[in-house]
Records
---
Amino acid sequence: MKILTSKPIRIVYAVTFALLGINHFINADSYLRYVPTFLPDRILWIYLIGIFLLLTSYGVTIKKYTKQACLVLSIYLILVVFSVHIPGLFFPKIMQASMLSILKDSGLAGSGLFLASIIGISESE
């Protein structure tokens, strides 16, 4: 089990979200279509999610907070699936992209839950 919780595995998982967080700052305008119109300062929400992704990816790399960061990222991804990607299935222009995003984000959420559970097991051994 120790090999599964080694630092390289945590870093590979964290880099995915760090790059996504950076992308929220570089390409913030491209994320505007995903932010509900009823929210004020929609661009601010994109930047806040970028900060969240960067902080949680940092948390994954620190062994002390890996479990919590993985759980929070998994919950976030599940919320994104239900609030962004599943509604996208009802629009023919983005239906295929939404289905691929559901699969991708569900897989990443599952990976985070798996990593969190492995960390929990290795801590109890």
---
Amino acid sequence: MVKPKTVKIKKAEPVAEKIAETILPPPVEKEMDDAMPEDFPLEKDIASKPDRYFEAVGRRKTAVARVRLFTRGDKQFLVNGKPYQEYFSLAQDQQTATASMRKMKCLDKFKVTVIVKGGGRNAQAEAVRHGTARVLVDFNNNFKKRLRKVGYLTRDPRMRERKKFGLKRARKAPQWAKR
């Protein structure tokens, strides 16, 4: 019977500890007796937090509008960082975009910021109207009945029909010849 040889291996733990001491800072232990003033927020820090807001999403065709309604701040209506009169150049689109706010007589009572993407200008204006109506209902549920009656809370489901193969568009076919 052959005895297996025992080999002594030097432990690498002391080397690893020395490396860790040089690389890592020593752990800091804090107790509540050592509480520093920076551990507790001041009143001005609490006041500098972002304002509370109500948020809703409005859609029309492929346009999507994310609407935020702030109860505090400047009383303005911004669409993609611009005043709505500047963003929607046509008066009809301006009327459409602010219709739900005007219906509830809230146009000059809140700060409203909208981020709208996709679609054309008309679809974007209708998406903004849908989003502002939804956010007003989130703010005050009593607005729901009036906004529903006018039709501003209803999502218009009409979308562009897809193109089919063998056709030029969704339904337009190439010219047919008998012979």
